[in-house]
Structures
1.
Amino acid sequence: MSKRTSKSSVRLTASDIPTGMREEYPLLDEMIEDGHELTRETYLDLDYLGRPPNPLSAEEEMLLPPIFRGQEYQEE
């Protein structure tokens, strides 16, 4: 079950992540296997080697796993 850690950050657990999503986003699978915190911030930090763009462009947002996309980029 996910836990809210702050207003803008949700910490997920491995059981919150569908298997198919782990296969589609290898970095997400690596985060789970290595015991990283499952947050958008951690994903961006790892994906951009500690230097994520701020803000992300619309194209960059759409490359993220859906669970880490900004609210305006969530699929309905």
2.
Amino acid sequence: MSNLYRYFYLLTAFLAAAACSKISDNIIWQISRGNGEALFASPAGDTALLCGGILSGKPYLVLIDSKHDIISEYSDEKEGKFTSGLVSEHYIIATGESGGKVLVTSVGKDGFPVWDTTLEFGFNVERVSLCRKSDGNFLAIASKSADSLDTETYGIAFISFNGDGEIISFYDTLFYSFYAVSGVTVGSTGNIYLAVTEAAAGGKTKAVVVSYNENFKYLWEKELYNNPEYGASCLAITVDNEENIYTSGYAELPDSKGNIRNAFAASLTWSGTIRWKKYLEYNNISTSLILTHDGRLFVLNNGCLILNTLNTVDGTITGIIRTFAVCDPSFDRAEGKFVTEVFDNVIVIAGTKNGSFYIVAKSPDSLSPV
């Protein structure tokens, strides 16, 4: 009987390993770079990919070619992190924080620095989001991070600058309760849309989309979840060609052990009317989202780097892509911070795995069993 049990155990283990291997084979490629976090990824034309974040406590950038080989790397001498970056024809622009200040850096594609600057405001900066404006210049938004533990003054700074680092315009304001911007996007009208986490009653936070015009004048804001007993947070935002807004984050829900975070995605019109809202992964948070070249909406859930695909019209969940065959968001040390689409119709996720700076590529068509 003991031999039978042993045979059954070995057979079960073999089949589980085979299943795990089969799903894991859907990873196209992956790169790990040491102690740190990959906080963003951005296409560099049709042949390369820029990733950045923090490595060994320093702001870090890596440029990767279409064969997944490293073209160049850059590590700043200052402590801090890069939280956003874009690639132009000749150079890289990256933004982040160092010592509570805004860090803006330009690096050549060969990894050599071109210029950098730090900007100080009346609050400690923890995150800087970056996007390109319709005139070809850049817009950076500086604030706290949505998970900040800092209880000092909060604020937001808008910084418009060109590729040479010259400040074109800026605007900053202070808040005396929690306020954090996790993402920025600019529509075809020039209007600016922010994914915001604001203080709410009872020590909770609320998930809000806020709009400004191109001159940094406040237009409107829309709260997505308004139950005062449960917190919520907006963590990512993008916009389509018709100026429909898409955002994601988390909303708390009741659980037998107390409130638990549940990932969500939502869509609004350019004027702030909610089109739809959908709950996604239970006990998870949605940290990033992207509209692909063929119009599909992919939403990244932080724990275990799980992707949901959604119908952009009504938010219907049309599929799920699990990066790992076996992974529990509650326990496993794998987190997804950012998702983008690159060459050859590939989805790339930036994040961390077992404490390392981690990048992984998946096919957008390799759906997983629910």
3.
Amino acid sequence: MAVLYLGIVFLVIILLLVFHCPLYQALIGGLLAKVLLFHIPMQMVLTQVMLFFLKLEFTADYFHVSLGDLIRKTLP
């Protein structure tokens, strides 16, 4: 069943790309399909998103750059 779900996730990504959505939107659509199909609890998803942004903040502070510079990968 998991292989079928992954196939559906890839199909969602491909369909969004066919409809000329940007790649980041297609990947977000795939992530949302994954969350819905695999019944991942929303609390776990939000926790992981918050941890990601906290790690970005700590990394930006460590390198003494802004978050924008870190995202654009203009590190020294």
